[in-house]
């Protein structure tokens, strides 16, 4: 197992491994978006965006399961998703990562639902996001296996949102299923009702890409910010990809949990750094 002593050595080893690869699979968890400025645990950003909820004693965007009335919950979702998913400004960290991958044959697999890869230069048809997309809503029943663009619904919520109280003042602005009138929810995986039809075909294409690689192909799996909240989505599958792909290498970028399996030996590189620090070192 390779283990560079510090940040400059880590950057140099990653640069060397990337230079030796002709195929790259970028695998990303919440740590990448947090390093890019979208940290769900950022208390100050939460207070800035949602002062009414902060005043109630809430301190972060991790609100699944918090019992709020629908008008407050949809106020939260509209503000949160508008901030995370619908910003148009380029993100420097994701752009730096796209530049690093360059013109190598590549795919992305991510547990993030913010579409930051597609919004920053990665081809949308080469991104597998099995946990869903904040840009879509679905019926909670679900009555149909389809989703709808979230922005028109959320724009109506925001137009009726009272920042001081955290409430949506017009009940008619609260989103409902356009088909059956039931409640809707962001199209993200939180239970068996998740509508995954728009996402799983990309997973099939990724599997074919991995399986159709020439025998001489040199694959680098660059995993960033994937910890143990949902290790079965990114972390463990990436270990198995490398384990079952001759000559493949794994780079695991994670400041808290950089550990790699011992059986991968010198084909795995643990880098205990945040993505912003590491990519900055690579491009300076």
Automatic annotation (TrEMBL):
Residues noted as binding Zn(2+) in the record, renumbered to the chain: 139, 143, 177, 180
UniProt-recorded Gene Ontology molecular function terms: metal ion binding
Span of domain Deacetylase sirtuin-type: 4-284
Annotated keywords: Metal-binding, NAD, Zinc
InterPro entries attached to this UniProt entry: DHS-like_NAD/FAD-binding_dom, Ssirtuin_cat_dom
Keyword NAD attributed: yes
Name of protein: NAD-dependent protein deacetylase of SIR2 family
Lineage: Bacteria, Bacillati, Actinomycetota, Actinomycetes, Kitasatosporales
């Amino acid at each position: 197992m390779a283990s560079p002593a510090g940040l400059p050595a880590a950057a140099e080893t990653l640069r060397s491994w990337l230079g030796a690869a002709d195929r790259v699979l970028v695998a990303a968890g919440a740590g990448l978006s947090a390093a890019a400025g979208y940290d769900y645990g950022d208390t100050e950003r939460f207070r800035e965006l949602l002062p009414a909820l902060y005043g109630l004693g809430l301190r972060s965007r991790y609100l699944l399961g918090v019992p709020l009335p629908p008008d407050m919950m949809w106020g939260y979702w509209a503000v949160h998703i508008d901030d995370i998913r619908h910003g148009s400004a380029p993100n420097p960290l994701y752009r730096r990562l796209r530049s690093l991958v360059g013109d190598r044959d590549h795919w992305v697999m991510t547990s993030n639902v913010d579409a930051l890869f597609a919004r920053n230069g990665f081809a949308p048809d080469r991104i597998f996001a099995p946990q869903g997309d904040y840009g879509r809503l679905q019926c909670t029943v679900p009555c149909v296996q389809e989703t709808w663009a979230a922005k028109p619904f959320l724009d109506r919520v925001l137009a009726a949102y009272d920042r001081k109280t955290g409430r949506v003042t017009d009940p008619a602005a609260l989103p409902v299923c356009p088909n059956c009138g039931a409640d809707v929810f962001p199209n993200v995986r939180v239970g068996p009702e998740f509508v995954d039809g728009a996402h799983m075909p990309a997973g099939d294409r990724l599997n074919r890409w991995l399986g159709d690689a020439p025998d001489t192909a040199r694959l680098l799996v660059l995993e960033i910010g994937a910890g143990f909240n949902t290790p079965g989505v990114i972390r463990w599958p990436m270990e198995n990809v490398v384990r079952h792909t001759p000559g493949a290498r794994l780079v695991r970028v994670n400041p808290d949990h950089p550990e790699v399996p011992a059986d991968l030996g010198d084909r795995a590189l643990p880098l205990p750094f945040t993505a912003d620090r590491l990519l900055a070192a690579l491009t300076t």
